[in-house]
Task: structure prediction
Amino acid sequence: MKVLVTGGLGFIGSHTVVELQNEGYQVVIIDNLSNSSLDVLKGIVAITGKTPIFEKLDLKDKAQVQAFFKQHQDLKGVIHFAASKAVGESVEKPLLYYENNINTLVYVLQELEKLTISNFIFSSSCTVYAQADVMPITEEAPIKMAESPYGNTKQIGEEIIQDTCNVNAKIQAIALRYFNPIGAHESAIIGELPIGVPQNLIPYIMQTASGIREQLSVFGDDYPTIDGTCVRDYIHVVDVAKAHVIALQRLLNNKNTTNFEVFNLGTGTGSSVLEVIQAFEKVANQKLNYKIVNRRSGDVVSAYADTTKANEVLGWKAQYNLEDAILSSWQWQKSLNAV
Ligand code: UD1
Result:
C-alpha cells in the first residue's frame, strides 16, 4: 500500500517513514531539503533495510505538485508534514510562513480532490490552543487567537481542511496536535538536526552538554508553576510517529466517526524546564551548565495534554517517558559529536 509523506526527511517525518516501512507500507517521500538532508534518507534505509521512493520537490511549485500527483495516482494516503516550524522566524517573516505552510496545503488538497486519494493526516500542534485556561488540555479547549504566524498557520490549516471535508465527503482527514516532540530513534541513526543555534530546549541542552554551546539560558523562573519555570508535555518522537501509522490505519479501515477528526498527542504529564534539566543530568550522569534569565516573549506558562481521546478513540498511548526520550536525544547527540 503506497503512502505519500511530505517533509519525510524532517524530524518527525523521517521517524514516521521508519514506522510506516516497518509496518509494510510502501513510502513515497517528497522533501525540498530546505531543513533536512539526504543523509536522513540513508539513515532510513539503514534502519529499515527498505528504500523509499524519494522526490526532491518544493510544494510551493503548483505545476510540479500537479505533475507529481498525476504520476502517483495509486497513493492510498497522504501524511503532510512539510512546513516551516520556527516560531521566532515566523514573527520576522510572516508571509514566508503563510506561503510555505498554507499555499502548499491548498495545492496538496486540490490534488486530493481531483484524484481518488481520500486519506489525509495533518501535522498540527498544541500551539492552536495558545495559553489554554484549563490543564490538561482537551481537544474541546477553545482555539484562541494565535500567538505567532506559525501558530496561525496551524489554526488556518485545520480550518482549510475542515472546510474542504465539509463539501467533499470523500476526503477523510485527521489532524494530530503534537505537544513537544523530542528524542530520536533508538538506533541513534536519525534524530533532530537543528540548523544554527537551537531555539528549542532539548537540542540546546544537548549542545550545551556537548560543549558546542557554553550555557543554557532558562527563560524565566517566576511563572506560577511548581518551580517557577514553564511546563510542557515532552513526547518521544517515535510515539508521535507511531500515532501517524495508527491514524492512517483508522482512515484506511473507515473507523473514523466524522471525516475530520483531531487528536492530541502528548504523554499527559507536564514537566518544568528545571525538571527536564534534572532528568538530563540523571540519564547522562553529568551536570548541565545553566543560568536563569528573563522570560522569553511569547512563551505560554503551561501546556500539557489530556490524552483520553487519543487513548480511547484513536487507540494510541505514549510508550516512552521523559527520561527515555531524553536518553535517546543524548545518544543521538553523541553519535553526531562522533562524526
Ligand atoms: C514551540 C511551539 C510549538 C512548536 C515548537 C517548535 C508554542 C506554544 N509552542 O514550543 O508549537 O512546534 O516551538 O519550534 O508556541 N526554553 C528555555 N531555554 C531555551 C529554550 C527553551 O528555557 O534555550 C524553555 C522555553 O521557555 C519553554 C520550554 O523550554 O518553556 C520549551 O521550549 P521550546 O523547546 O522552544 O518549545 P515550545 O516553545 O514549547
Remarks:
- The domain at 201-231+268-338 is CATH 3.90.25.10 (UDP-galactose 4-epimerase; domain 1).
